[in-house]
Amino acid sequence: MAKATIIAEGWIQSVGYRAFVKRVASQLGLKGLVRNLPDGKVEVFCEGDLTKINKLLQKMDYKGKKDDALSVFVENLSFYTEGEKGYLGPWKEYSDFQIDYGFEVQSPVDRALLENLENGTIYVASSRDEFGLLKDEFSMFRKETSSNFGTMKEKYGSISEEMKKMRATFEKLADAYIKRQK
Fold it and tell me: Are 63 and 73 in contact (CB under 8 A)?
């Protein structure tokens, strides 16, 4: 059983980073704490299998869009195991992996609301990024389609002109049919 302190630096506060760390650590079966520090860093204390702690460390090194206020961007991670200089240990008691909000959360409902708010921040940013990718794909599709229609027009003439001719012909036939029915 290993214990470690991890200090993350970058654009990591107010973007749901603590909730992300908690989710990954919990999935890995780690116990510990995560909190924001006054200097803009995020501190993590965790305990568990060293291989799983290293997986958490890899996941924590997230590089979103650096100039995007809603995106997580980790610039540096410092990692210290128990016994090394820089290892700080837990700052309060814990039973599983928890987010420390800097104040006592009064009820499980309050904790769930706070964590869902942080998770929502991540969800909004990632959804926006996915929509951005779709927008790029749509723009590329539109350019390809425009190019294809241009090629078709050169090869076959204007489709809209042909459709107008077909419509006029159909209207004449319909008028003639209606006249015959009277």
Answer: yes
Domain segments of the chain: what residues?
Answer: 2-104, 106-182
**23 is a catalytic site residue:** no
Q: Is 18 a catalytic residue?
A: yes
Is the confidence at residue 133, as pLDDT, over 60?
no
Residue 85, pLDDT > 90, answer yes
pLDDT tens, residue by residue, 38-53 = 999 999 999 999 999 9
CATH code linked to domain 2-104? 3.30.70.100
Task: Kindly write down the DSSP assignment for every residue of 88-145, as one continuous string.
Answer: ---SS--SSEEEE-SS---SHHHHHHHHHHHHHHHHHHHHHHHHHHHHHHHHHHHHHH
**Region at 40 (left for phi over 0; alpha for psi -120 to 50; beta for the rest):** left
H or E segment and range at residue 42: strand 42-48
- Of residues 18, 119, 142, 167, which has the active-site annotation? 18
pTM of structure: 0.66
Q: Which residue out of 23, 35, 36, 148 is catalytically annotated? A: 36
Measured at the CA of 179, the angle between CA 174 and CA 182, to 5 degrees, comes to 130
